[in-house]
Amino acid sequence: MRKEKQPLNHYHRFLDEAGDMTFYGKGRVPILGEHGVSHCFILGMVRFHTDIIPIRQKLFKMQNSIPQNLYYKNVPSVLKRVKKEGFYFHAKDDLPELRKEFFDFIQTLDCSFYAVVARKNYGIFERKYNGKSSEMYADLLSHLLIQEFNTDEKLILNIAELDSSTHAQNLEKAVEMARGTGQTKKVTCNTWKFKDDPLLSVADYMCWTVQRIFETGETRFYDYMENKIEKIWDIYDKEGKMYGQGNPLTEKNKVGSQLP
Hints:
By secondary structure, the chain is an alpha/beta fold. The chain has one domain: Ribonuclease H-like superfamily/Ribonuclease H (Nucleotidyltransferase, domain 5). Helices cover 34% and strands 18% of the residues. The chain has 8 helices and 7 strands, in the order E-E-H-H-H-E-H-H-E-H-E-H-H-E-E. It has helices at residues 52-65, 76-84, 96-107, 122-127, 133-145, 168-178, 199-216, 220-225, and strands spanning 12-19, 40-48, 111-119, 155-160, 187-192, 229-234, 242-244. A 7-stranded mixed beta sheet has the order 5-4-1-2-3-6-7. Helix 5 (133-145) crosses helix 6. The termini are far apart. 33% of the residues are buried.
């Protein structure tokens, strides 16, 4: 009997990150905690449970309408993106009004979010990752993908482009790290710019939501989007805690000023 073809959302995942993998400044001077340098790096993945084609079409329509909207069209952050490559939603840079509009849109979607959070630690970065951000990214991606190998069905990863960390060789390395013995699941990795696939903006907003707690202790965005969050794995917490429904993140998850 011929196997019924699954819809695209069954195979596709959309991934983005929040924070940075910066540990040192010029002359390898440690700079964690300085202005503009994050305390954590977060890698997150969104799965849609309904057809992704109409969602993508609606998002293209939404993002293309923003530069024409009299309320938004002359906003510097909007003009900058339009001039560079076309407008797309990006939580860190969006106006509060735009954020609310996009968060409300996500609430209309049947989707779920899973993320891995790495508290930046000099010792781990040097010992485990040889001081290389690409190795750190590959390891976190492998942790994110472990649960995706529970079936033999193919998997297509749509990943927001990020310097050498998302080069094909590094992504393939992460997939093989996640793959268990004897597993033959076919995994395809595609990298995209935000302007080319607006579904990445959903992953961006969800990552930013989690980042706000770890960096600032601000919970209101997380509280609003908690129903979309499946799991948050704080892998370098002392206990490697898992958060989710029934065990939410709180302001207590903010990384303290005492750096490792």
